Amino acid sequence: MFAYEIQAAGKRARAGVFQTPHGVLETPVFAPVGTQATVKTLTPVQLEELGASLVLSNTYHLYLRPGDELVAGMGGLHRFMQWPYPLLTDSGGYQVFSLARTRTVDDDGVTFKSHIDGSSHRLTPERSIQIQENLGADIIMAFDECADPGDREYIQQAMQRTHRWAERCLLAKRRPDQALFGIVQGGVDPDLRAASAEFIASLPFLGIAIGGLSVGETKEEMHAALDVVTPLLPENKPRYLMGVGTPEDLINGIARGIDIFDCVLPTRLARHHAAFSPEGRLNLMNASFARDQNPIDAGCSCYTCRTFTRAYLRHLIVARELLAGALLSIHNLHALVQLVKDIRQMIFSGTFEENVPQLLERWENNAARKQP
Q1: Can you list the domains of the chain with their CATH numbers?
Q2: pTM value?
Q3: Catalytic: 297?
């Protein structure tokens, strides 16, 4: 039911296919984030049209609202949100770390208060797997602890706890139609990262995720962590870098052997009037775009760039029209989806590594706001 095959490879970059019950994923692949069973402002048809093949939804949020049992009763997440292609759910571990009002971690699990209404809840590895089985995504994650990157002693404790929880997740899993991925932790410490990679790689997961990055460390620290981890992972399993999603991040991640990415950034930027472009990240609220008849990116084939001017997009933003967020989301997501598809073809042609400097130069300044 699940199979990963590398079809082409460079020095470390890989192009492959991952078979799932809801279709084949061609990797490398970028997954738009549909936190609450929806990618904000976009319909499933629009996602399909912009080229998305994988969507991520959030275990923590869907457990709290509307509830995983309700989703199961509605036929599962695919039917509930009308997305017929592969779905991925995270374990809820990161959201407990980042969103819960208060949390208490022990070796059995986490007790936390909802960020929505303050109600108390308990997540354990077994409960996380049960929730994800009720949701029914194709790819599910082991429950992990994402620790603050500043405290090495606690990071080590959290990593060890993550390892014990990974074993419990494997024992708790019942559904054969879901691929369970383990998660590598360890902060930015190379020794901890190596130990975690070796331990998670030794377990019978169908894929390996790399968590605990893009949480405040520098890009150099992230790259160094990937340089340690990916050579220690099995070649025959997909590798997923969690929560990372600027154009530069995708280029650098693929160059280091990553296959799957997700991030809320493209749609979040769209709601704040920003667009990815070869000129750097554009703030389309800026008055300089008021009479600009160019598209966001003349080289982009998305619906937004084929159809609308920067002037029109700025007008929508100034007028507070909801369409602005939808059109910018289409562009930002298409930019990343198309970037990884282009890189996939470069891997097949054997030209990716030599093109990395050009790609990084083309997409520089998209990691921070750039005022035109």
Answers
A1: 29-263 (3.20.20.105), 270-370 (no CATH)
A2: 0.97
A3: no
